[in-house]
Amino acid sequence: MGDELGRLLREVDRKKMELAERPEVAPNARDAYEERFLYESIFFNNTMEGNQLTAAEIRQVLTDDVVIAGKPLSDHIALVGYRDAMRLSDRYIQQQRRITEHEIRRLHACMLIDKQEMAGEYRTYNLMIQGHRPTSYEKVGLKMQQLTEAKPSEHAHPIESIAWFHLRLEKIHPFGDGNGRVGRLIINIMLEQAGFPAVIIRDTDRECYYEALNAYDGLDGNPQVLPMQLLLGQLVSRHLDELLAI
Length: 246
What we know:
This protein has helices at residues 3-21, 27-47, 55-64, 73-94, 101-111, 140-149, 158-172, 179-193, 203-217, 226-244. The protein is an all-alpha fold.
């Protein structure tokens, strides 16, 4: 662990302890935070993938069950699928359910309700993503088994291990669509299971997030984990600040 990452994670742990020692916040304040987090998470995770609905429209679609004129129906369906996958994520968190291939495929199937032919199914073809080639489809099953059965290092901070898991999952890119959204849901499942707050990758974080993914891609023969670990630590620190401010 580098000095910068070590300092950041110690600060995260300090804030986590401070939050745990604080009295319970008023239920209405906590509920307001959780509602805001829900809609922000749906908005930022789906706009990252090209969804055209605004934040206000997303809330309207999900609360009033309406269709926004002039916006693709597929965007509406994607929101419902993502919301349902978040609900499944909550059950995994409450049950402290270990994330295996089965859980990942269930999340994907829940999310891709508009693409039943690929929902929950590993891809059966190779592909290129902005010049990057993910794992060959013939190796996806083996690589996913290795990823989900690997045990985190006893000496690693949970945030280090979660960042590594996310990078490996995105590098394998097991599905034909929805890999990023599923991967970011799994980040939050693992964070909350480890006692940390869930995070949102907002517009201002997006460039750093993609840079961290690219740093691990290994096109230069030197895959780096540190950029994603730093980013995830910074995101957790920010959300702890938001919770401490309630």
